[in-house]
Write a structure and sequence with these properties.
Shape: elongated
Number of helices: 3
Helix content: 25-40%
Radius of gyration: 15 Å
Structural class: alpha+beta
Number of strands: 6
Distance between the termini: 44 Å
Order of helices and strands: HEEEEHEEH
Length: 131
């Protein structure tokens, strides 16, 4: 079993997030923490990096103003950023961290960054999801 996977799983347990699913062979964890707005976040331990992705909303039409607003907001996000999936229709929060030097505080900082983003920007996200 992957040592990085076990380290990340241990940190998530210490942070009291709900590990809903795990696949140690693929290095994948799916977590939720409703208090922080985290729902089915996919965490991939892909040496040498940890990839965190949380679906935020779907884009229903090709509105350049939504993309422009999200890019501007990226400048304010402490850790991670808004991104689009391969289809260009799903807005996700994505962060990548180095596994070699990963510590509990760094992982917690990334999760807190998403939580802060969702609390500050929720009304705009809701508006965008309805357009």
């Amino acid at each position: 079993m992957n040592n990085s996977f076990e380290k990340v799983k241990h940190y998530l347990t210490e942070l009291n997030v709900d590990i809903q699913k795990e696949n140690p062979e693929q290095g994948i964890l799916i977590i939720s923490d409703p208090n922080q707005g985290i729902n089915n976040m996919v965490i991939g331990c892909m040496d040498p990096i940890l990839i965190m992705e949380q679906h935020i909303f779907d884009i229903k039409n090709d509105d350049c103003e939504i993309a422009l607003a999200l890019l501007k907001k990226n400048r304010d996000i402490v850790h991670g950023a808004f991104a689009l999936d391969e289809s260009g229709k799903k807005v996700i929060f994505r962060d990548t961290l180095q596994l070699e030097n990963l510590d509990l505080n760094e992982l917690e900082g990334s999760l807190n960054s998403l939580s802060l983003l969702l609390s500050e920007y929720s009304s705009t996200i809701i508006k965008f999801s309805k357009l």
